[in-house]
Design goal:
The protein has about 190 residues and is an alpha+beta fold. About 30% of the residues lie in helices and about 25% in strands. Helix 4 crosses helix 5.
Amino acid sequence: MLEPTSLVLVAVVNDPRDLEIARLLGWYRIPLRSAPKVVFVDYLAFYLTGAFGDAKWQIQSIAPVLGHELTTRRELLKDQPDHPRAKEEYYKLQLGPLENLPKPVRADKWKRITFLYTTGEYLMQADTINDLVVRTEERRILWQALRERAEGEYGTAGVPDMDIPEEVLAVLLGIHELEQSYKTKPARAKKSQ
């Protein structure tokens, strides 16, 4: 059951097949080379991209994370033995049953995110993806919780125990990308014909 203090990793789902794998087979894959610092979280929240038609750009469901292992793409997707990344390492997150959120968390405009850490409290109160961003004063608490989880699972390697500047903390929590997407982009100059 999702608790206010649950650690939640928002993960992108680019292909409906991947959501079906999570739903039916109970796992989700993350390439090791682009994985977030800590994958041992309480829940995964599935952010659906443009491949999902009317359901795109939102989170509709979550799943409890039961464990994880390191394997290769070839072992995960046996029907793709010749894929260019077949030999690359992936985290395989074992999942419990998918649960629908009471209301979808929508992007109020398109967001390009990879991974974002948040909490059960933020997820349950969110109307938009931006509402998942942990406020500045609470980011250190979230990072400490992730650090402690990683220590228990992996030992201390790879997760710094030091005073981290706010900008770096935003990147570690996946918040930087989301905050950047809200900044106004400069208008393009019109091409002369």
